[in-house]
Amino acid sequence: MSFLFGKKNNQKPDPEHLPAHIGIIMDGNGRWAQKRGLPRTAGHAAGVKTFKNISLYAQEIGIRQITFYAFSTENWKRPKQEIDRIMQLLDQYIEEGLAEYAERKARIRFVGDLAPIPPKMAEKIRRLEALTKDYTGWTLNIALNYGGRAEIVNAAQKIAREAVEGTLAPEEISENTIASRLYYDDMSECDLIIRPSGEYRLSNFLLWQSAYSEFWFDKILWPDFKPEDLDRAICDFQKRQRRFGAI
Ligand code: FPP
Fold first, then answer.
1. Most buried among 83, 97, 193, 214, using CB within 10 Å?
2. Domain containing 129: what range?
3. From 24, 26, 91, 145, mutation site for ligand 1 pocket: most ligand atoms within 8 A of C-beta
4. In a domain, 180, yes or no
5. DSSP of the chain, one letter per residue?
6. Which atom of ligand 1 has the smallest separation from the CA of 92?
7. Active site residue 186
8. What digits encode the pLDDT tens for the residues 211-231?
């Protein structure tokens, strides 16, 4: 409709047809800060606020599982000062989140290889996961030192070990064998992947899980992303016809 041109419409998603699992690439923090003459790290701090707001809103509207890309296996290439600030923000968030998430009955999981994460922080992460593990009604996954390729390599190593031990024959290996050996076997499909900031890439996020994902891209920078933007993405998703290769 022409009167809506250039305006955002405030349509609400249909609660009966929500995507079961949403993945979000929180992109545009650096550009958001640079536009304001601030250091890039200020963009990450603003990005954390958006992350909190959007994760809580997703829970409110009934999204059962959401995965945020916080730090990729490639992000170690960034300047040390920026990496340290992102880790500090995460650490602070875990500290604050401990009680709040248990109260909200939210299951928190970290997805990725925690080996290079500072031991104290890794311990807090495990504590937060243990504290919330039974709240399976709503799951918040935080992808940390995550790479879709690394996840598939990890699954391949598990399978190879089982084959060597003689508990799995190569001809028995199916898609399900791989899916069940990913970091979490109950997040093997992602219905909707959202990437703000005007980039049209997957950047090694949920490679296996995105085989039949719907994608939603927008120019908005992550710190500016609002609940209405999540509504827009979900409403758009609800208009799509998913055929999964059939007709
Ligand atoms: C991408 O924007 C953002 C990241 C690589 C880091 C995102 C991390 C956070 C928001 C902090 C994580 C903390 C919690 C609590 C989840 P960019 O820096 O690539 O932006 P640009 O493309 O504009 O430079």
1. 193
2. 21-146+191-238
3. 26
4. no
5. -GGGTTS---PPP-GGG--SEEEEE---HHHHHHHTT--HHHHHHHHHHHHHHHHHHHHHHT--EEEEEEEETTGGGS-HHHHHHHHHHHHHHHHHHHHHHHHTT-EEEEES--TTS-HHHHHHHHHHHHHHTT-TTSEEEEEEEE-HHHHHHHHHHHHHHHHHHTSS-GGG--HHHHHTTSS-GGG---SEEEE-TT----TTSSTTTTTT-EEEE-S--GGG--HHHHHHHHHHHHHS---TT--
6. 15
7. no
8. 999 999 999 999 999 999 999
